[in-house]
Recover the amino acids of this structure.
């Protein structure tokens, strides 16, 4: 059964259409990455799938329309990490990770021993034990990103093929930490049976990790398929208005930006 089925999703913000009738199907355990120029509607689309924005069209998860699932139930199955999540001041990393259990705690109740155990296990899995008592605000970018992921995983723990939505999870990280976070997401996808949807700007990296790419331009689905079909010179240069070469490698297509040469400068052939 398809994990996530999005059918003709449209979102308006401030009276303006931002996402325009976009459809996609993501299989359980797949990783789908939304790419597209700034302002294309990537964050809007992720937020609409997460139920944080009103939308038109259909979103169903594991065969059930989201409209028929309570917000609480949806939060047990779908977790979203915003591009720059709000960091509550003065909160320890462990307490932050534990917030992920909120949809599992009965109204007016407290976290159970099991909730604490889940949060602790996730901290161990994400190498956050040494930071557990530290103030979240004092963590570096890479450490913080692990804490954001930990909170989302704690939220999804116990759900088969939970849906993890990550909005530009690596945009604040250097190349090494980018790789660390994406490898971690990939491991979790396999070990914890997650279906993953991310947005990302680094096109070659997006293609390396994702099973499928959605190219969104001005709110419209321009291409959806495996990286080799979406990361083409024609599509990328046209829709990003960029000069690029696409080099095929054993690890997939690599998109290389090509600089402009001015008359008289190095490489000029006139
Ligand atoms: P992306 O994540 O692809 O960069 P966004 O989804 O953040 O794009 O934004 C898509 C478009 O929606 C942008 O043009 C942005 O200015 C616009 N937008 C975002 N939020 C609002 C809002 N609250 N009201 C009106 N327009 C908005
Ligand atoms: Mg965005």
């Amino acid at each position: 059964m398809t994990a996530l089925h999005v059918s003709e999703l449209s979102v308006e913000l401030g009276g303006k259409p931002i996402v325009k009738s976009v459809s996609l199907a993501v299989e359980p355990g797949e990783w789908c990455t939304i790419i597209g120029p700034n302002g294309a509607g990537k964050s809007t689309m992720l937020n609409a799938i997460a139920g944080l924005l009103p939308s038109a069209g259909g979103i169903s998860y594991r065969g059930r329309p989201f409209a028929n699932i309570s917000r609480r139930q949806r939060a047990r199955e779908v977790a979203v990490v915003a591009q720059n999540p709000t960091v509550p001041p003065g909160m320890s990393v462990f307490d932050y990770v534990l917030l992920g259990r909120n949809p599992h705690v009965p109204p007016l109740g407290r976290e159970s021993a099991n909730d604490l155990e889940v949060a602790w296990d996730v901290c161990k899995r994400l190498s956050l034990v040494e930071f557990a008592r530290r103030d979240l605000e004092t963590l570096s970018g890479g450490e913080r990103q692990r804490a954001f992921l930990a909170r989302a995983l704690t939220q999804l723990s116990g759900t088969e093929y939970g849906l993890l939505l990550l909005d530009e999870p690596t945009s604040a990280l250097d190349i090494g930490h980018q790789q660390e976070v994406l490898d971690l997401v990939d491991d979790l996808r396999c070990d914890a049976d997650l279906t993953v949807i991310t947005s990302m700007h680094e096109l070659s990296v997006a293609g390396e990790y994702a099973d499928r790419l959605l190219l969104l331009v001005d709110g419209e689905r321009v291409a959806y398929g495996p990286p080799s079909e979406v990361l083409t010179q024609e599509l990328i240069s046209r829709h990003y208005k960029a000069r690029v070469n696409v080099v095929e490698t054993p690890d997939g297509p690599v998109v290389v930006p090509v600089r402009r040469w001015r008359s008289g400068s190095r490489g000029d052939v006139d």
Remarks:
- The chain has a mean pLDDT of 93.
- The first strand starts at residue 4 and ends at 13.
